[in-house]
Amino acid sequence: MKYLVTGGAGYVGSVVAQHLLEAGHEVTVLDNLSTGFREGVPAGAAFVEGDVRDAAKWLDASYDGVLHFAASSQVGESVVKPEKYWENNVAGSMALLGAMREAGVRTLVFSSTAATYGEPEQVPIVESAPTRPTNPYGATKLAVDHMITSEANAHGLAAVSLRYFNVAGAYGAYGERHDPESHLIPLVLQVAQGRRDAISVYGDDYPTPDGTCVRDYIHVADLAEAHLLALRAARPGEHLICNLGNGSGFSVREVVETVRKVTGHPVPEVVAPRRGGDPAVLVASADAARGKLGWNPSRADLAGIVADAWTFAQSIAREQ
Ligand SMILES: NC(=O)c1ccc[n+]([C@@H]2O[C@H](COP(=O)([O-])OP(=O)(O)OC[C@H]3O[C@@H](n4cnc5c(N)ncnc54)[C@H](O)[C@@H]3O)[C@@H](O)[C@H]2O)c1
């Protein structure tokens, strides 16, 4: 099959593109390199440097489907520059859906996020939980989910939205290098590498076993496998929404301690005040992904996730 991967020069898109190639598919990556890297595009994929808002220029009936990763995804930036997020994430997705309709490409897998739920009333979070995003990033992703539902209902799109929790780890040459970095594991690894003095722990008085926030970390390779299953599960006229997480969480302190063990380096920590809008615990129920996609994540072990991310971080550091 032939797939267009938008955002395939970024972290998650590059790993999924590589998995598609390994499964024998033909892949074209469409990426404007705003936060991605040319070397993130897997060898074997065709590359178009361009914007998703211009997808109609490249999409034609030869494609069997689209995997849509291209987005702006920094929560903090979305609060101060919401217009960038509505434009890139919502207008970008709208243009893509139009291009798909025009070309007759009728299968879509979309990167949604746990941020669509906001502060949960209950954990683990199920897909029927209220969606009350607490920042513009989550709001734009939720808007796109609604847009996709309408497209499926009105025009028969076969669509799956995957709501990722905290993606982590690396897959061979493909890993996480956001700039600025806001995700915990790569930040703690930067401390282990001596590129940062200390890791800030935002609040240690939450109602959790060690007082620090608990999050659900999912290995990027497990996540990639869910995308391939989603392509198979997509049905015309249906929009399936599935959380992707491991269903168990790790606290900030557990992550820091795991990084110390895996890397053998000291990681100084500094306790800072809580950040507004940080829920104490965010953990997914992944029952829908298991039941409806047949997904069976096999890399839930935090030490393994950190070890893969560390190998990647070290390889990047050698290149710089
Ligand atoms: N990484 C996570 O933990 C996480 C969690 C939840 C959801 N997501 C979602 O997964 C997707 C991928 O995230 P990531 O961590 O790989 O981010 P990333 O920034 O590494 O990748 C995004 C890619 O999209 C490209 N891009 C952005 N806007 C574009 C546009 N208008 N046209 C063409 N290309 C464009 C960027 O250059 C980049 O290569 C995003 O949609 C994000 O919202 C990520």
TrEMBL record:
Keywords from the named record: Carbohydrate metabolism, Isomerase, NAD
A GO MF label: UDP-glucose 4-epimerase activity
Cofactor section: NAD(+)
Subunit organization: Homodimer.
Organism: Streptomyces lucensis JCM 4490
EC number of the protein: 5.1.3.2
Entry similarity comment: Belongs to the NAD(P)-dependent epimerase/dehydratase family.
Gene Ontology biological process: galactose catabolic process via UDP-galactose, Leloir pathway
Residue ranges annotated for the NAD-dependent epimerase/dehydratase domain, each copy included: 4-239
Enzyme class: isomerase
Pfam families: Epimerase (PF01370)
Recorded catalytic activity of this chain's protein: UDP-alpha-D-glucose = UDP-alpha-D-galactose
Designated name of the protein: UDP-glucose 4-epimerase
Presence of keyword Isomerase: yes
InterPro entries, sorted: Epimerase_deHydtase, NAD(P)-bd_dom_sf, UDP_G4E
Recorded metabolic or biological pathway in which this protein acts: Carbohydrate metabolism; galactose metabolism
